[in-house]
Amino acid sequence: MKNRLSSYFSGKKDIKTRTLISRAVSIEYITTDNEYEALILENNLIKKYSPRYNIDLKDDKSYPMLRITNEDFPRIFSTRRLIEDGSLYFGPYPNAGSLATFIEDLHKNYKLRHCKKFRTRNSPCMYYHIGRCDAPCCKKIDKQSYNEIIDEIKSFLEGNPEETVEKLRAQMKEEAKKLNFEKAARLRDGIDAILSLHSKNTVMDFNTDSRDYIAFASEGTMVSFSVLKMRDGKLVMRDLHRTKSLNEDKDLMMEFLMAYYANSDSLPQKIFIPVDIDKKLFLKYISTNFKITPEVTVIAVGNTSRKPEAAGGDTADTTDVKNRPDALHISAMNMAKQNAIEDIVRRERERTDVPALTELKNLLGLDHLPARIEGFDIAHIGGKMPVASLISFYNGNPDKKNYRYFRLKTTEGIIDDFASMREASSRRYTRLLNDNKPLPDLILIDGGIGQVNAVQGVLESLDLDIPIIGLAKRDEEIYLPHNSTPITLPKRSDALRLLQRVRDETHRFATSRNQNLRTKSNTVGDFPKLPHIGAKRAALLMANYGSIEGLVSGVQNDGILKLSQIACISENQAAEVYQAAQIMLKND
pLDDT per residue over 415-435, tens digit each? Predict the structure, then answer.
């Protein structure tokens, strides 16, 4: 999504795109759980607002639904029109092909009627003779037996499809064993259709009650409220409201409700909130000012925020929400909660963390705010593939374009964090001096006094006067150079919170890079170290032998010729590879 959006602002664009971008004022987005919900939501919003620059989905069509008619002998088919005649609807489904395949499979497995208009007949139609219909029109099946089949299909559409999918997968494998590949392919397509039809849909349903789902998230004094508005069974709007408060959750929610519902036009029939409030007081306020009295329901959402205090009440077990009567409302509340959390994250990125920077300045006795903070950490596995991470924070927020990592050379194969820190810091600040680039205002080391002194020695050798501190993980203590007595800050300290963010980011970046190197190493092993072996041949050897030991053993069993054929090299080159592998194995 980010890459797609960024493409609008780079390169040469057609006149339509250039005009669109020139008139754009701001960018907002709504977070959904999956691509299926995103497609439905996009369709709903385009139909509601008819945006000038959207060509797709501007017609009056909508996504297809599955309809079970309200008749004595119901018919099942795909439709794009919703008729309120008691029929049962499922969907909508963005993938019309999957829905068509699913309905086709239903007619193959269940003998349902096909005729559009039901009438009594003397002789059954062709579908009865080919085994595709039980001919209720000729009284070949009674109403109760037919509706038992319909009830089975309903329970399948409403419930969990896993059992049916497992049966179909078993049949598919059995048909493949019998070499009935066409039938296996049909079963595979049926499975895909079933799975696609059971995607969770929070943004559209067939409940016509007007509903508001309200959730909030907080970080310190920042609070963001997210309101999802469902009207006529469709999500038509997402409201975001920002404030600052240290009030308790119940008081916070009551204040927001009083302020948000300022007129009767905005009042829905039902309001869902994450924490309990004084409902009598709220409803008295509503009934006094407006004629509408909404139904207020509390649904506690799970703790999907980054901070426990942002959960907004007791947590709810949503592990199997599809089979619970309030599954729809829980999904909508969780979606509202996630959008509130996303807004808190955006607000953190937007703000300059002045309180934390000011506290750090005073704590360390700096001349100015440490706007640029650089952090270091080391990652390795038993001394192998050691990596140092360098991350940068500017005004209290990550500055990812200035992230760097160092593949360490002096500590390969040994465990020496002090030497690793010396190498990484030396390479970093020697380079900045040589390129005459700005230096950081503060250096943070993930470690204790030993690591801090190691980097301080490098700075002194380069004649640099950059403040440096270390943050030890065990007790979250701050160490200064040549001072074994640490500084301990209160757990709710703004400065400590910022240092922890920098430290955690250095650790994440170093660990992820080390994991990438290990993955790459495990993919081709030590094969690239052999003569005549590049990346592609290393992959071939890895696939056939698995390891250097496997290569030596394989050549001993199958001969040099086999190795030359696998690696696509001459027999003389294969002999050199085999000899080098033996030496490598012996040295290990």
Answer: 888 999 999 999 999 999 999
